[in-house]
Design a protein that fits this description.
This protein is of the alpha/beta class and about 300 residues long. The chain folds into two domains: about 5-175, HUPs (Rossmann fold), CATH 3.40.50; about 185-285, no CATH class. The chain has helices at about 15-30, 45-60, 75-80, 90-110, 145-150, 155-160, 185-195, 200-205, 235-265, 280-285, 295-299; strands spanning about 5-10, 35-40, 65, 115-120, 140-145. About 30% of the residues are buried. The chain binds iron/sulfur cluster. The site of iron/sulfur cluster has 13 residues, from α4. Iron/sulfur cluster binds near residues 182 and 297. This is Phosphoadenosine phosphosulphate reductase domain-containing protein. Pfam families: PAPS_reduct. InterPro entries: PAPS_reduct_dom, Rossmann-like_a/b/a_fold, Sulfate_adenylyltrnsfr_sub2.
Length: about 300
């Protein structure tokens, strides 16, 4: 990079804890950098995400730019022959998160800027790219300050706490930010979506379809091939999902206690309060953090 190369600093917020903490961290530690904060909005985000971003804006004393594809979810659904997004066909992230980002930074790259994008991968996570620049984006650089500076999960909590932000409110019931109907949700989270945001649950239900009546012959249920959302209208099924989840929590607590005991010795106190359920939900279900979701959506 030549000395006088123009540099554009950007930091994407997902509505999740790590990117928000990174924004606070960068504003505190690198005030000389003129960072533009942005949020790629699918139009189907949780209300708690917007609330959190508003509070973060106050803390940063800077607006957070909302970028989007200019088209709504239904438009993109039609473009994909009405095939709803799923793990193996995650067109939602591409069309509604990644492409708007690429479109937004394109003029800067064309004008000869180096674009530096800061991503909230922590030091205690497996290394990931975040976003992989393609051939035409050779002046896009990804930086991971938390990974470089040794900031781990507890560090993220501390940053958010010290900024008076705390965690986004959806962590009370769900493990990730992102769309209300995200297919990465677990059954317990669908149950809670119905309890917390019944209108969003009904909207998700309205997208489900059966081969006999759907225009493309597809059967699609958000929770998996055999369980439409309407099954959550049955109190017995809801009670069963809650009971199953409780068992997972209990198993996870025991495992954590065993690990701690092994680390600290037999006489160590093992009744520490643990951050469980939503913050540890991926670990509880034996998944890497994020559970396969793109960091653009949840980080
Ligand atoms: S949050 Fe889920 S549904 Fe929304 S764009 Fe990301 S992967 Fe797709």
């Amino acid at each position: 990079m030549s000395e006088d190369k123009k540099v554009k600093h950007v930091l994407g917020l997902s509505g999740g804890k790590d990117s928000a903490a990174l924004a606070v961290y960068m504003a505190r530690n690198y005030p000389e950098l003129d960072i533009e904060y942005f949020f790629t909005d699918t139009g189907k985000e949780l209300p708690e995400v917007y609330d959190f971003l508003e509070r973060l804006e106050i803390q940063l004393r800077k607006p957070i730019k909302h970028i989007n594809s200019g088209k709504d979810f239904d438009y993109w659904l039609a473009q994909h022959n009405n095939y709803l997004p799923a793990g193996q066909q995650r067109w939602c992230t591409i069309r509604m998160k990644l492409e708007p980002f690429e479109k937004w930074i394109r003029p800067f790259l064309d004008q000869g800027y180096e674009v530096i994008s800061y991503v909230g991968i922590r030091a205690d996570e497996p290394w990931r790219d975040g976003y992989r620049p393609n051939e035409s984006q050779k002046d896009l650089t990804i930086k991971m300050p938390f990974a470089e500076d040794g900031i781990k999960k507890q560090g993220v909590f501390d940053i958010l706490e010290s900024a008076g932000l705390g965690l986004p409110k959806y962590y009370d019931w769900r493990s990730r930010s992102g769309c209300t109907f995200c297919f990465f949700q677990r059954k317990i989270e669908w149950v809670r979506l119905r309890e917390r945001h019944p209108e969003a649950f009904e909207e998700a239900k309205s997208y489900e379809k059966r081969a006999e009546t759907s225009e493309n012959g597809e059967t699609f249920f958000w929770m998996g091939p055999n369980e439409p959302l309407e099954t959550l209208e049955d109190p017995e099924r809801v009670a069963q999902i809650k009971a199953n989840h409780q068992k997972v929590i209990e198993r996870f607590e025991k495992k954590k206690k065993r690990e701690r005991k092994r680390r600290l010795g037999m006489h160590a106190m093992v009744d520490e309060t643990m951050l469980i359920d939503t913050l540890d939900m991926d670990a509880m279900y034996d998944l890497e953090e994020g559970g396969g979701a793109c960091i653009t959506c949840y980080k």
